[in-house]
Amino acid sequence: MDEYPQRLHKQTLVVDTHCDTLKCLLPQFTRPRDSMWQDRSNVGFGKRSKLGHIDLPRLKEGGVDLQVFAISSERDPTPSYALRTAMEMIETFYTECEKYPKLVAPVTSHAEIMQTNEEGKIAAMLSIEGADVIEGRIGMLRVYYRLGVRMVGLVHSLRNLLADGVADNRTKGGLSRMGVEVVEELNRLGMIVDVSHLSDAGFWDVMEVSKDPVVASHSNARAVCSNSRNMTDEMIKALAERGGVMGMNFAPDFVHKTKPSVETLVDHINHIVDLVGPEHVGLGSDFDGIPSTPVGLEDASKMPAITEELVKRDYSEDYIRLILGGNHLRLIKEVVG
User: Fold this and answer.
1) Domain map of the chain by residue range?
2) Most buried in the list 68, 92, 147, 298, measured by CB within 10 Å?
3) What is the pLDDT of residue 19?
4) How far, in Å, CA of 313 to CA of 316, rounded?
């Protein structure tokens, strides 16, 4: 990589709003087909590994300053022990962070993110992917808040008590009554509503209900790559009008049908910038939740490739800083505090 993009990337606070690494640390989520995860002797935050996409050394090498870690349960219409599984993930998160206090720190606010960055550590924040984990009890959101969660995705593609997901939307339904109440409670608590995985109808319901700007933590542009997990131009405009931010997902099927690469990922950024400006797009890799990656983005250590491609396309430093992390940080400061 040329010296200038490398220096710019290093000097910029980089935010990734979605990874599934916590699932990879729990043996119940590795199946026989996941052969690379069967030898678990090297699985953890602290050691550089050839497994998966994320560990602390690779995050550091990739210049990632804030990584958001998702907690969830099995993606199932009626997941068993959803709440218990989420608790196990949270315990794993804090245990791993405590092992490496000089490298990483859990954070729950914008001020803590900035302080952690000043100390030269990686900031780690918790999110929920699929509110099945509240098991129908809105009061559990307050428990998760106390445990450090600051972002909540309502569904994980399949329908639950709150809403229809993109993979389970035959009825064209949006938010249920409970879903509306959950969005209102998230606004009250200062937790970011995440619309990734929602049905289109659910997205539009959230736009009506939420008083705060929302995030699509790991969703791309449907006009660039047609996939129901990506967002239409109309959705992107509505998200932006309310101050929201999208995190670009690295899943090849969401990037390009035949040539997923860092270049075609940046095509999504170009489209969104042309549509609504540079203030509403960021990064949301979905690392450790995707079976393969675009060419040039094989793991977290390759994040600087995005900066290099943005420089090649004559993006200004100010725009690049917004895209790499500034937009997400603005949203966190506004909603979470």
Assistant:
1) 3-335
2) 68
3) 97
4) 9
